[in-house]
Amino acid sequence: MKVSFDSNYLELGEPPSILGTKCASCGITIFGKRQTCENCAGTDVKTVILGKNGTLWSFTVQRYPPAEPFKLGSAKREDWVPRVLGWVELPQGPRVLSIVENCKPEDAKIGMEVEMFIDKGWLSENGDEVMILKSRPRFE
Amino acid sequence: MEKRAVIAGVGITPFGSFPEKSFADLSRDAIGMALKDANMSFKDIQMVIGVNSFLSKSTAGVMATESLGRMGIPILDVDAACAGAASALGMIKELIESGKRSNALIFGVEKMPKGFMPPTVLYNNDWQVFMGLDQNPMYWAMMARRHMHDYGTTVEDFVKVVIKNRAAGVLNANAKFRKAVTMQDVMNSPLVVDPMRLFMICAPVEGASAAVVSEESVATRASSKPLLRLAAAVHVVSMYPNTIAPSICIGDSGNPTRHELAAQRAYKQAGISAAEVDVAEVQDTDAFCEIEAYEGLGFCKKGEGRSLVDSGETARTGSKPVNTDGGLLSKGEPVGASHLGQIYEIARQLRGEAEARQVPKKPVFGLAHVSGAGGHCGITILERV
After folding, report:
1. What pLDDT was estimated at residue A140?
2. ipTM of the complex
3. Containing H/E element for A17?
4. Is the CB of residue A50 less than 8 Å away from at least one CB of chain B?
5. Does pLDDT of B312 surpass 90?
6. Quick check: B363 pLDDT over 80?
7. Hey, where are the domains in chain B?
8. Distance set, CA B113 to CA A38, B270, B325 (Å)
9. What is the residue-wise DSSP string for B176-237?
10. pLDDT surpasses 70 at B343
11. Chain B interface, mutation test: which of A87, A92, A133, most B Cβ atoms within 10 Å?
12. What Å distances lie between residue B210 and B5, B103, B343, CA to CA?
């Protein structure tokens, strides 16, 4: 069975939804389902679905493997292929920390058009397939 | 009469790797120096605050000090990432100024493992660690990249910060790295998280630091050293957004940055402006962070941080010397001990005891700034009176 990496951020379904929270008091939208606004501590908030097409607000290249318990591949130095990570700005304003796939380090640029997509992550302890959010360049 | 809190004594161990010493040994080395500097003994202390983030011990403060004597005083531990000691100084300042205590000891200690900080300590969501979004320099790198985009700051500007601080570190016997570096050395060091290279990022290390904080009359009774008034001690956690570990979402909010927020409060508490700071220690966990700190502390306008390094203004001989002890880029970073390590340097500079590192003009106001995981930010200002 497919399950979300965290149902506060990604709801699987047809179609799947990236979840956010919009605050009625300060107007800010943040990533993930919350009871309280991180910006103003207001409680007049509602869950919203975030648009998946955004732009790369900033990025870096991870040149060394992450530490255990990394689950998206080998954490050995010799196996590691540098990958792009970035803050992806979504249409309602939040910038989400994301792996940028299908993007060579030399091709990454601030402002480039990217889309969030759902990909296989790892197997959970019960053998479920955990689905995660990533981003990739978007070509018209 | 109004009671004033002063730094009566400071102590520090070398920062580096000391497998033969326990955290308690390191702590006692720094505490012993601070007590000696204040011309006091442990019996004179009414309260102890120990600061650490990575020891994974319960009651480290007691473990470190019990062999000095169980005096029936409160001893507690504080964790606020890099800002733990700033928080402790703020609490002690209030207790002293309100007359509730007249003498306290704060120490910071850490035995950090090499390499990236352990993710399971810093990150709350398991999935973030499973995805490998957990190397904290990546946050610095992304903010650096954006700063380059918005303001035209360049990689060479970051290198200049490293060159400046490593040159200062040559004169600091307590620093882990005591070799000056060139532009080529830095650019030849491996990329870690673009555009940040290895030499642009500080090394986690082991070490301890300590300070005796006293009511003014207690300090003057014990020693005739110049008084260092604790003019401000501020600790804040950033408003939204937190742009560093372990954040997963940022965005425009119109809020001041953590540096700006802490600086506004610290200047107000001290009754001074940024222009009156004569010497400063700022967080340089990465070379960009120092530029970000200049701007947040109001040493220059937003986006113009690079010009202070370029012009030599923040070199030891410049008009606003910053990180005269080599900064974390030279000393290494023992998170819980780093702020009192800065206070040690500021105290030496204000008393005119910094020897080869002494800044040319006789400083009156010294500022120490730290910033770290979770959005913690601390600023302490000392005034020579």
Report:
1. 66
2. 0.97
3. strand A17-23
4. no
5. yes
6. yes
7. 5-115+203-384
8. 32, 37, 23
9. S------HHHHHHSPEEETTEEGGGBPPB-EEEEEEEEEEHHHHHHH--SPPEEEEEEEEEE
10. yes
11. A87
12. 16, 14, 9
Cis preceding-peptide flag for B360 (omega within 30 of 0): no
- In terms of Cβ atoms closer than 10 Å to its own Cβ (0-12, 13-18, 19+), residue B84 is buried
Q: Does A116 touch chain B (CB under 8 A)?
A: no
CB-CB under 8 Å, B130 with A121:
yes
Cα three-residue angle B315-B185-B170, rounded to 5 degrees: 45
- Report which of A28, A70, A76 is spatially closest to residue A48, judged by C-alpha positions: A28
Count of other CB atoms within 10 angstroms of residue B71 = 13
Number of domains in chain A: 1
Per the CB < 8 A criterion, the answer to whether B208 and B12 are in contact is yes
DSSP track, B97-113: HTTS-SEEEEEEEEEPP
Q: For the segment B366-375, what is each residue's pLDDT rounded down to a tens digit? A: 999 999 999 9
> What token pair was written down for B291?
């530029």
Do residues A85 and A22 lie in contact, with contact meaning Cβ atoms separated by under 8 Å? no
For residues A131 and A7, give the distance between their C-alpha atoms in angstroms, rounded to a whole number. 10
CATH code of the domain made up of B5-115+203-384? 3.40.47.10
Separation between Cα atoms, residue A33 and residue A114, nearest integer Å: 22
| Interface list for chain B against chain A, based on CB atoms closer than 8 Å | 115-116, 118-119, 125, 127-135, 138, 141-143, 145-146, 149, 190-196, 239-241, 247-253, 255
**Residue B381, phi then psi, degrees to nearest 5:** -120, 130
| Positions of E strands within B245-295 | 249-250, 279-281
Asked if A117 has any chain B CB less than 8 Å from its own CB, the reply is: no
Backbone angles phi, psi at B107, to 5 degrees: -135, 150
Distance CA A39, CA A45 (A): 11
Half-sphere exposure of B18 (CA within 13 A, CB side): 22
Given CB atoms, is A5 within the 8 Å cutoff of chain B? yes
Domain with A94, as residue range(s), is 2-137
Listing DSSP states for B315-357 in one string gives STTSSS-B-TT-HHHHH-B-HHHHHHHHHHHHHHHHHT--GGG
- Sequence-separated (6 or more) residues with CB below 8 Å from residue A119: A101, A131, A132, A133, A134
Count, in order, helices (H) and strands (E) of chain B: 14, 12
Q: Is the Cα torsion angle B83, B84, B85, B86 positive or negative in sign?
A: positive
Q: What is the pLDDT of residue B118?
A: 79
Q: What's the confidence (pLDDT) of residue B47?
A: 98
Q: What stretches of A65-112 adopt beta strand conformation (E)?
A: 83-89, 95-100
Give the number of residues written for chain B: 385
Minimum-distance CB partner of A60 among B142, B239, B249: B142
